[in-house]
Amino acid sequence: MVNANMKSVMLDTSFLILLLKEGEQFHSNCLDYWKYFLENNIDIYISTIAISEYSVKDDPYCLPLESMRILSFSFNDAALSGKIHNRLIAHIKSHDRKERNIVINDIKLLAQTVANNIDTLITGDKEFIKSVKDNIDVIDKIRTIDLSVPLRNYLGTLF
To answer: What total number of domains does the chain contain?
Structure first.
């Protein structure tokens, strides 16, 4: 099994939105992953950053908070976030690349995942993950799951 050693997962804002939005593309993928995390006793983390973003469009009390561990953005998270942001900008400039705009909340969430030794980040923002993977090595410390990939494909199973 691909992720037999998965112990923890950080949910990004896109996961939260898609989990509760029936009829949206990848909603069923979110449900499958959610059930998998719960059934396999994987610690599910949500950042106050993602809660803030989610709150723009919906009431965060609608989320299944009883199944999540809420993480506040700490000093250590902030320090690592600054380093990651600086390295990403420097790498892009040094290679004369024009990358999409860097979204600081994505970097904060990534830093928080790494700083808190959460081994997996699940996200619908594959462009951000690709940008980070192409430019800095911090992403190698965690596993990423792309929400567009069904659970069965991620696990390598037929059903």
So the answer is: 1
Residue 26: partners with Cβ closer than 8 Å, 6 or more residues away: 18, 124, 147, 148
Among 3, 10, 6, which Cα is nearest to 121's?
A: 10
Contact between 67 and 32 (Cβ < 8 Å): no
Is residue 136 included in any domain, yes or no? Answer: yes
User: Alpha helix locations (H) across the chain?
Assistant: 13-20, 27-39, 48-54, 75-94, 104-115, 126-135, 151-155
What pTM value is reported for the model?
0.86
CA distance 103 to 123: 14
The CATH number linked to 127 is 3.40.50.1010
What's the sign of the alpha-carbon dihedral 74, 76, 81, 82?
positive
Domain that holds residue 125: 8-155
pLDDT tens for residues 3-20? 558 999 999 999 999 998
